[in-house]
Amino acid sequence: MLKPFVAVIMAGGRGQRFWPLSTPERPKQFLDLGHAGRSLLQATFDRVLPLVGDPERVFVATGRRYVALVRQQLPEVPAVNLLVEPEGRDSAPAAALAALTVHARYGDVIMGLFSSDHRINGGDDFEATIEQAVALAEDSDGLVTIGITPNRPATGYGYIEMGEPTDGGFKVRRFVEKPNLRTAEAYLSSGAYLWNAGIFVWSTGAILQELDCHAPEVMRPLRDAFHQGEVGRVFPELPKISIDFAVMERTELAYVVPGDFEWDDIGDWVALERLLREEGAGDSEAASANTVVGRHVGVDTSGNIIYTEDPDDVVVTLGVDDLVVVKRGNTVLLVRKDRVQDIKELLQDERLAELIES
To answer: Which fold has domain 5-265?
Structure first.
C-alpha cells in the first residue's frame, strides 16, 4: 500500500427487517448474532483494524441517537472519529461526509467503506482482497467495489456484471438490482455476475471528484457546510440516496474485485438462519430442519426459525412450516419466511408505531 489506508464503518442503519430483535433504540449492528460475544459492529472493527493498524484510522458513521452505543462498544475509536449524522439520509451523504472529513485530516489517502452488519469469514482472504482493491484503486484512480462469487441464486442481493479484466480486477459493466429467481439462476449459471457486497475502496480525491460530478445536489451544500462547520444544519435537508445510485451506477471509473471469502448480508431473519447454521450457534433440529434459539417443542413442524430471548419461554408449534416466530419481551412476531422483506413496511403501520413508542 503506497498511500495510508483509512477505514470507515457505516453504522447508522435501523435494521428494521430484524424487528423486534432490532429496535430503534438498539438496531442490529449493536447486537451479538453469533460472533462469540461481539456485536456485528465490533466484529467489523475487529476485521478492519489489521488493515489500518491503528484505531485512530478507523472512523464510524452513525446516527446521533447511537453515539453512546458506539462509544460503549468501540472505546478504542477516538471520539473525534465519530461521523455523526443528525438524520439518516442513506449512504451517499454519509460517504460524502466521511470523504470530506478523512481528506481534511489526511489528504488524498485510500479510504475503505465497510458496512457494520455483514457476516464475513476467512480473515486472511478478506485482507488479501481488500489489499488487492487498494492496489487497484491506487493504480487506476478509480472507484473499486468488492463482489462475491455467488454460490446460490440469491434474490435478496444486488448483483454486479463484470466487464473487461484489468490488472487486479474487472471493469464494472453494470449494477443490477435484486432479481427474481429465474434471473438469479441465469446470473449464477453465466459466471459473469457477482453479489454486490457493499464494500468500497477509493482515494478520497477520486470519490470527492465523482460525487461533485454525479451528485452535486449532495456535494454543493455539504461541502460549503463542512467548511463552515454547519453540517448539522444542512445534513437533514440533503437528498436521501445511496452511494450506488448517486455515483457507482453513473461513474465511468467503477471497478470490481472478486472476493474469495465467505460473506453474507445479515439483512433479515432468513439470513440469521444461514448464520446460525453455518456457525453452529443455536440449535438446528436435524429431523425437522428448524433453526431454534431458545426452547422449542414442535410436532409436524419444519423449516421454521424460532427465536426467544427469555430462557423461561417455551415456543410450541404444531403443523406449521416455513415461519419466523420471534418473542422479545412482550412482543411476538409471526411471519412467513417469504414475507420477511415486508417487515420494514409493516413497521410503518400507525397502530404498530403507537404501540412501539408506548
So the answer is: Spore Coat Polysaccharide Biosynthesis Protein SpsA; Chain A (3.90.550)
* Secondary structure (H, E, C), 186-250: HHHHHCCEEEEEEEEEEEHHHHHHHHHHHCHHHHHHHHHHHHHCCHHHHHHHCCCCCHHHHHHCC
d(C-alpha 78, C-alpha 254), whole Å: 32
- Please write the tens of the pLDDT for every residue from 176-216: 999 999 999 999 999 999 999 999 999 999 999 999 999 99
How is residue 37 annotated by DSSP?
T
Strands 262-265 and 118-121: antiparallel
Q: Which three cell numbers stand for residue 53?
A: 493498524
Residues paired with residue 307 on neighbouring β-strands, in sequence order: 293, 326
Helix pair 123-140, 40-52: axis angle to 10 deg: 60
For residue 59, give Cα distances in angstroms to 46, 144, 248, 266, 289.
Answer: 13, 19, 22, 21, 41
Average pLDDT over the chain reads: 91
- Which phi and psi (to 5°) does residue 162 adopt? -75, 140
Indicate the domain borders of the chain: 5-265, 269-357
Distance CA 172, CA 314 (A): 50
Mean pLDDT along residues 15-42: 87
